Amino acid sequence: MNLVPLPAFTDNYIWMLHDGRNAIVVDPGQAKPVFDALKRDNLQLAAILVTHHHADHTGGVAELHAATGARVFGPARENIPEPFTPLKQGDHAETLGLRFEVIDIPGHTAGHIAFFLPAQESAGHEAAPLLFCGDTLFSGGCGRLFEGTPAQMLSSLDALSALPDATRVCCGHEYTLANLRFAQAVEPANTELTHYNAQCEALRALGQPTLPSQLAIERRINPFLRSREATVLRAVRAHAELPANAVEADVFAALRQWKNDFR
C-alpha cells in the first residue's frame, strides 16, 4: 500500500492509501484533491474513512461517494454525511483486504475516532502500523478541546500513546512547526526536540510534509504526551497557578490553555 498526503485548504492533509488500482481516503474535506489524485494515478476509490464531523474533514464526502460509490466509515456518535457505516471502540473497518481497528478518542470532538492499521506483512516486507488520528494527536501537539474535557483528551492521548513505537502518525493538519515552537517553550532543554525541530524545518523549507510522524518520536518530544514528566510538570507549574492537590487532568488543562494563548 502506498501512503500519500494530499494537501487541502491551507494546511489540511487528506490521506490516501492505494495499491496501484484501488484507493482509500481519510478525512476528505475537499473532493477536488482526491479526484485529481484518482485521475492522475488511474485509481478507483473504494472507501472513505472519517475521524470526526468538522467540515474541513467531511466537506468532500458526499460528492466523492456520489461519484464513486465508495463506502463511507465514520464515528457512530457524530453527524457524518449519509450513507455511512457507524463505528465505535472495538469495531473494525474492513476494505481492500485491510482491517482497521477503531479507537474512541473524544476530546477535540465528542465522538472523534481513530483508525489503526496494525503492521502488515507483504512479500516478505513488514509495513509499519498506521494511525489516522484526525485532529486529536498532532506532531508536537494535540487538538483543541472544542467538545470534550481535558480528562477525556488525556485519556484519548494515553490510548494512542500505547500503540507500537513504529506507528506512523497521520494527522489532519500541517501544524508541526508551530507546535514545536510551543514544545520548546515548555521543554527548552529537550535535545531530541531540538533535533526533531531542525529536521522538520528542513522538510518544510523543501516544501515537503513533516508527516507522518512516528509515535516513538512523539513520546519523546510532544508535551501533550509528556504532561506527567517532571520537566513538563515543572514548566506548567511555573506558568500557571495550580492548586497543591492538582490532578493529572488539571495539569493537562493548564498545558492546553498555555498552548491556546501561546504566540
Features of this protein?
27% strand, globular, 263 residues, 6-stranded mixed sheet, alpha/beta
Write structural notes for this entry.
- The protein is of the alpha/beta class.
- It is built from nine helices and 16 strands.
- The chain has a six-stranded mixed beta sheet, with helices on one face. The protein has a six-stranded mixed beta sheet with strand order 7-8-9-12-15-16.
- The N and C termini lie far apart (39 Å).
Determine the strand fraction and express it as a percent band.
Answer: 25-35%
Distance between the termini: 39 Å
Number of strands: 16
Tell me the major beta sheet: 6 strands, mixed
Average pLDDT, rounded to a whole number, is 97
What is the C-alpha radius of gyration, as a whole number of Å?
18 Å
Please tally the helical runs, counting DSSP H or I stretches of 4 or more residues.
Answer: 9
Overall outline: globular
Helix content: 25-40%
Order of SSEs: EEEHEHHEEEEEEEEEEHEHHEHHH
Low-confidence stretches: none
Write a brief caption for the model.
The chain is an alpha/beta fold.
Structural topology:
Layout: E1 2-8, E2 12-18, E3 22-26, H1 32-41, E4 44-49, H2 55-58, H3 61-68, E5 71-75, E6 85-87, E7 92-95, E8 98-104, E9 113-117, E10 120-122, E11 125-127, E12 130-134, E13 137-138, E14 141-142, H4 150-161, E15 168-171, H5 176-186, H6 191-205, E16 213-214, H7 215-221, H8 230-239, H9 248-261
Parallel strand pairs: 3-4, 4-5, 5-6, 12-15
Antiparallel strand pairs: 1-2, 2-3, 7-8, 8-9, 9-12, 10-11, 13-14, 15-16
Helix pairs in contact: 5-6, 8-9
